[in-house]
UniProtKB/TrEMBL annotation:
Gene3D superfamilies: Winged helix-like DNA-binding domain superfamily/Winged helix DNA-binding domain. SMART domains: HTH_MARR. The keyword Transcription applies. Pfam families: MarR. Transmembrane segments: none annotated. InterPro entries: ArsR-like_HTH (IPR011991), HTH_MarR-typ (IPR000835), WH-like_DNA-bd_sf (IPR036388), WH_DNA-bd_sf (IPR036390). This is MarR family transcriptional regulator. Keywords: DNA-binding, Transcription, Transcription regulation. It comes from the Archaea. Residues 28-160 form the HTH marR-type domain. PROSITE patterns: HTH_MARR_2.
Amino acid sequence: MSRKNVDENNGNASEMPKKCLNGDIPQGMPLAGLVSVIHRMYGIYVNSNKPSEELTAGQFPFIMRLSFEPGRTQDELAECFLIDKGTVARAVRKLEDNGIITRRQDPENRRKYHLYLTEKGRRIVPEIMALDRRWEEELLFGFSTEEKEHITGAFRIIAEKSHKYARSHDKEEISG
């Protein structure tokens, strides 16, 4: 089965341009598209090189956040990542089932649970960080140290601005 796309001029299906298959990125692609490509390729890389078969790239942010901020609740993670509570609940359940995180009941509110990495989870963190470091080294190969710092700094600023902008336009935030 061949890859198809819709010709913008006449709506007919045509073969996907070879550029899409070999990594050539069209000039003029918007920033969101570029970030999307990087994110998707990172997911493919992680899922091919992950430290444990039971993990997925989508679980890495939860593990890393809990490594830096132990004791977060599911609601706090949902708010932090701007994702729905059901998605967080499913990820947390899988991580708990795999022995990577544990829940501890809040003594003041029995309906609230704080999340912590288990010993197994703490052992995975350096492996995730090494995987991320290899990814970044490969992507930034050929750039000077100064250029790498500039790129990383620019992405940090863009990430922070996008988080603030998304929050300010979140329908639940605005109406709630």
